Amino acid sequence: MVACTLLHLFNYQIFFMPKPVITKKSLQADMRYLKLLARNFPTISSVTTEIINLEAILHLPKPTEHFLADLHGENEAFQHVLRNASGNIRRKVKELFGNTLREKEIRDLCTLIYYPKQKLELVRSTDTDLSDFYQTTLNQLIAVCRNVSSKYTRSKVRKSLPEEFAYIIEELLHESSDDRNKQAYVGVIIQTIIGTGRAEGFVVAICELIQRLAIDQLHILGDIFDRGPGAHLIMDTLSSYHHWDIQWGNHDILWMGAAAGNPLCIASVLRLSLRYANTQTLEEGYAINLLPLATFAMETYDADACTTYLPKIEDPTRRPDEKRCRLLAQMHKAVSVIQFKLECAAYHAHPEWNMLDRALLEHIDFATGECHIGDRRYALCDTDFPTVDPQHPAMLTQGEEELMRSLCHSFRISQHLQQHVEQLLQHGSIYGIYNSNLLFHASVPMNADGTFRSVHLADEQLAGRELLDRIEQIVRQAYDPEAETERREWARDFFWYLWCGPNSPFFDKSKMATFERYLIADKETHREEKGAYYTLRNDAAVCDMIMDSFGVRGKHRHIINGHVPVRAACGENPIKADGRLMDIDGGFAKAYHDTTGIAGYTLVYHSRGFQLVQHAPFTSTQEAILHGTDIQSTTQIVEMMGHRAMVNDTDKGAALREQIADLERLLVAYRKNLLSL
C-alpha cells in the first residue's frame, strides 16, 4: 500500500509539476534554434505527436545495463556471458516455461537461443521430425522474444529487427495466438515459414534478436587485452555490438601505445604474449610478423636453456610441444632484455617521470652477477646476457635495433589493430558517468589523508578529475594527425608511464617489479605497494567525496571499478564502502581463477535495482552446444530501488525531458504565430 502511494506521488509530481512560463520574448531569443527544429517538425500535429511519444517513453521501465571488467582475452567465456545475458535469458525461459517444460527441454531451448546455428546443425542430424520441432520451437521463441522486448517501444524494437524478417517478427510479437480472432492468422504465418523452407533462418534471426534485446547497454571496465588468446575476437564482437562503452584499462593502454608505435609498449606486449604462450592475437588476429624475433632469438640464445622464460600456461589444452616451448622461451628472453634496455633509455629521456631508479639494467655488477637496488645487493638468477655491453648496458645491438624497427613497422601497418584502437578511442574514455554511476578501471591517485594527489604533468599540477581529463587528452593527442609532431611523439612516449608510472591512474603502485620477478629470487623485491586509493575506497566518506568531485549525483550513486581481483574464495566482498563502491574484477582470465576462486562477475543494473552475478568457470563452447552446459552463476542482490526505475530516472530520461521542453517551446511559437506553418 505504501509502495503504491509512493509510486502514485511520483507520477503525480511528473505530470503536475509546474512548468516554466514560455514568453514571446524568450521565444524570440531562441528563434534561430526553433527554426532549425521546425525543419524536422513542420506542423503542430508533428510536434504534439513527438511530445506524446517522448512522454510515453519516459514511463517505460529502465533498460538493462551490464557491467563487465578484466576480460583478458577470454573470448569463449565472454561470448557465452553475452549470449546468455549473464543468466538473464535462462531466468526468463524458466519463468515462461518452468511449469510446462522439463529441465532438459529448458536447457535445450536456452542453448538454441545462445548458439542457434550450431544447435540447429545438431538438431538436423538427430531429429527425424523437423517440422514438428520448428512448430513447437518457433512458438516458444516468439514468447521469449515478446518478453524481452516488453521494456522497449515498438519503434526501438523495429530498429533492432533483422531486415530479412522484420515484418514477420513484428507481426508475431504484437499478435497473440491466445486471441481467438488471430489464432488462424498467427498459425498460418508459422506454418508458412516452415513450409517455405525459411524456418532455420528465422530461428537464427529471432534468437539473435533475443540476445540483442536482453542487454540494452554493455559497459566494459577495461582490460580486454593480454593473458587469454582471444582479445582480437572480443574486439571484433564489440565493433559490431549495438551499444557499448569502455573505460580503458592498463592493458588496453599498453596495446594502444604499441599501436601508436611506442617501442617499449611493443616490447612489453610481445613479452606478455610470449610469457603466456599467446601468439594467436599477435599473429592470427593482427598479422604481426614474429619471424624476425624468432630468428634473432634462436641465433642469440641457441646455447641458453632460458628456463626462467618458459611460458606460463594455465589451460593444459593450449600447451605447446617441448620444441615450441623452448622457442617461445628464447623469444621471451630476447624481447625482455630489449625491454630492460629501452626502459633505461626512456627514463633518461624523461626525467620528469622520476623513474631513474627503475633503470635496473644499469644497476647490475656484471663482474659479480649482482644487482644493486636501494642499499642492498641481490644475486641474479640469470647472468647470460650476450647482447648487453657492461660498459653501456642500455645500448641496443645492431641486430636488436633492426629487430625493433621491423616489429614497430608491423604494429604500425596492422590494419586490423589500428581499426580496433580506433574503436577503443571512439567508444572509450578514462572514466565514464552513466546513470549516477562513476566508472573507471583502476584508481584516482590519492594521498593517505584522503585528498587527491597533485601530479606534475605537462607543466601543470593536476589532481582528481582534472588529472584524468588531461591524461585522456594526451592519449588522444598521440593519435591526432593534426597535432604537432613533437607533441604527438611526447604523448606516444607517455603511454609507457601510464602503463607503469607510480602516479598513473591505470597503475598507481610504487613500482612494476618485472625486472625483479624475472631475475631476483628474493620475493621481497617483487612487492608492489598499492596507492592509497585501494585502501581509502573502503571508506564511504571518501567515496562520497570522489563522486561529488566528479559531479555524480543521485540517491543511488556508485563507483564501479575493475583491475584488482576480488578474492571471493577467501571471503572478500566485492561490495565496499557501505554499498557505494563495487569492484567487479572476478577474474575472467584463467590465470586468476586460483586467486579469486571464481571466473568473473557481471553487474546487472535493471529497473528493480542492482544484481551481482558471480560466474563459475566456463568449460567450452562445444560442451555448451553438445550438452547444454551453461555457466553456473550465483546472483547476489546488491541494491533494490524504492520504486521501479523508469526511463525518466536515467540519463536518457534527462535528455528526453530537454527535447520535450524544446518541442513545447516550438509548439508555443507555432500557436503565437511566431513561425509560419
Task: Provide a concise account of the structure shown.
50% of the residues lie in helices and 10% in strands.
Low-confidence stretches: 1-16
Structure annotation, total helices: 29
The major β-sheet equals: 7 strands, mixed
CA-based gyration radius:
29 Å
Query: Gap between N and C termini, in Å?
Result: 49 Å
Helix content: 40-55%
Instruction: Give the number of domains.
Output: 3
User: Quick check: average pLDDT?
Assistant: 89
Shape assignment = globular
Total beta strand runs: 17
Q: Tell me the strand percentage band.
A: 5-15%
Strand order of the largest sheet: 7-3-2-1-15-16-17
Going by helix content, strand content and strand pairing, the class is alpha/beta
Describe this entry's structure for a reader.
This protein is an alpha/beta fold and 677 residues long. It has three domains: 2-60 and 659-671, no CATH class; 65-223 and 537-645, no CATH class; 250-410, no CATH class. It has 29 helices and 17 strands. A seven-stranded mixed sheet has the order 7-3-2-1-15-16-17. A five-stranded mixed sheet has the order 8-9-12-14-13, with helices on one face. A hairpin with a 2-residue loop joins strand 8 and strand 9. The model is unreliable at 1-16 (pLDDT under 50).
